[in-house]
Design goal:
This protein is α+β, with helices and mostly antiparallel strands and 262 residues long. 21% of the residues lie in helices and 28% in strands. The chain has 2 domains: 103 residues, Pseudouridine synthase I, catalytic domain, N-terminal subdomain (Alpha-Beta Plaits, 2-Layer Sandwich), CATH 3.30.70.580; 131 residues, Alpha-Beta Plaits (2-Layer Sandwich). A hairpin with a 2-residue loop joins strand 8 and strand 9. The two termini are 36 Å apart.
Amino acid sequence: MRYAIGIDYDGNNYRGWQTQQDGVPSVQLTLEIALSQIAAHPVMVHAAGRTDAGVHASGMIAHFDSPASRKPFNWLLGTNSKLPPDIALRWIQPVSDDFHARFKAIARRYRFVIFNSTQRTSLLAGKVTWHYHALDVERMQQAAAFMVGRHDFTSFRAVECQSNQPVRDVHFLKVWRQGPLIVLDIQADGFLHHMVRNIAGVLMRIGEGKAEPEWVKELLLVRDRTKAAVTANPGGLYFVDALYPPEFELPREPAGPVWLQG
């Protein structure tokens, strides 16, 4: 039987999603150990995406296979009892064998959360990116609009990015303020390494008034990573959703993080 699962996690204590050869803590390995205890056999988990060290998820989708006879509720309750507090299984559902969390995904969605205040707060440490200079959301919205659509994002990819090609189709990139928090909400057919964090760095520079919104158009055309702003730190980044064809009928939850909803 193949199962799809929804996961949220705090990435601060992990070297990212993917299991590392040197045995350092990863979300994937921690989840596989917990599931294997409930299944009573080794379990391998395949995810919709890979997050870097310090990056979080409120709606990661993954799948695994198991011949073990367990009801979904028992899988859910048992696995969560084996997981540390910073990783949680949100839901589990049997799916057809042709489902694949990575290869069947038609879009992925991230949110980047900025705490825009002259003073930092300890209560959101590691959960947001603190930016103490005042940011103009309207300028950031104007700049974000230039990234929507199909573009070459070479200027926004990490030097070590291993993707075969840099073109991505951004479905939307919304920017809004909620009190001291500024949220960047982006969905695309796929993402390059550090793409969202590099976009955040550019938008914060524009919001601070150090560049004009039209700078984004120049960066897309020049296709040179060295021309763009610094990479924003990972603490404010969340993988919030992956979209699949409707025939899989996966559960839908509000985009997170949960403390940002409502």
